[in-house]
Amino acid sequence: MKAKKYLKNIRKKKHEVYAQIEYIKHLEELATKITTMIQKDKVQTTDENRQEKSIINLIAAKENVDIMVSEYINLINETVKYISMVEDNVYKAILIARYINALEWEDIAIEMNYSISSIYRLHNLAVKAFESIFNSK
Questions:
Q1: What is residue 58's predicted lDDT score, i.e. its pLDDT?
Q2: Residue ranges covered by each domain of the chain
Q3: Predicted structure pTM score
Q4: Cβ-based neighbours of 49, under 8 Å, separated by 6 or more
Q5: Among 4, 26, 35, 61, which residue is least crowded by beta carbons within 10 Å?
Q6: pLDDT at residue 61 tops 70
Q7: What's the burial of 86, exposed, middle or buried (CB within 10 Å: 0-12/13-18/19+)?
Q8: What does DSSP assign to residue 97?
Q9: Which phi-psi region, left, alpha or beta, contains residue 17 (left: φ > 0; alpha: ψ -120 to 50)?
Q10: Mean pLDDT lowest for which of 48-57, 85-94, 100-109?
C-alpha cells in the first residue's frame, strides 16, 4: 500500500469508528425505550421476545465496535511509530494533526500559525518523508 493511501485510510477508519459508536448510542436509546414501554404495559411473551432480540442485537453491535476500535487503535499505534521516525518536527506535527487527530487543513494552519498554502506545501514534504520510512518497513 502506498504511504498516502495508508494515511488516508486512517482518517477513513476514524470516521467509521465514530459512526459506529453513534450507531450504538442510537441502539441503546431504542433498547431503553422498548424496556420502558414493556414495563409500563402488561408484559406479554411477544414483548419479551422483542426486548430479548433488541438486547442480543445491541450486544452483537457492541462486540463489532469493540473489534473495530481495537483494530483502529493498533493502526494508530503503528502509524505513530512511523511518524515518530520522521526527523522534522513540523512534518511530524502536520502528519499527526491531519491523520491521527483528523483535523481539517484550515484548523492545522491556525493551530500551527502557518498559511494554508504553507501547510499544503509542508504536508507534501511530510508525506514524502513518511513515505521513505513507510516503504523501508
A1: 86
A2: 3-135
A3: 0.78
A4: none
A5: 26
A6: yes
A7: buried
A8: I
A9: alpha
A10: 48-57
Q: How far apart (Å, rounded) are the C-alpha atoms in residues 4 and 9? A: 9
Lowest mean pLDDT among 53-57, 92-96, 102-106: 53-57
Alpha-carbon gap, residue 76 to 10, rounded angstroms: 7
Q: What is d(CA 24, CA 59) in angstroms, rounded to the nearest whole number?
A: 9
Place of cell 442510537: 26
C-alpha cell belonging to residue 29: 436509546
Q: Which three cell numbers stand for residue 52?
A: 430479548
Beta carbons of 71 and 115 less than 8 angstroms apart = no
Per-residue pLDDT of 114-132, as tens digits, reads 999 999 999 999 999 999 9
pLDDT tens, position by position, 24-45: 998 888 777 765 555 555 555 5
Q: Which three cell numbers stand for residue 56?
A: 442480543
Q: Enter the C-alpha cell of residue 114.
A: 502557518
DSSP secondary structure, 35-56, as one string: HHHHHHSPP-HHHHHHHHHHHH
- CA 128, 8, 90, 136 dihedral sign is negative
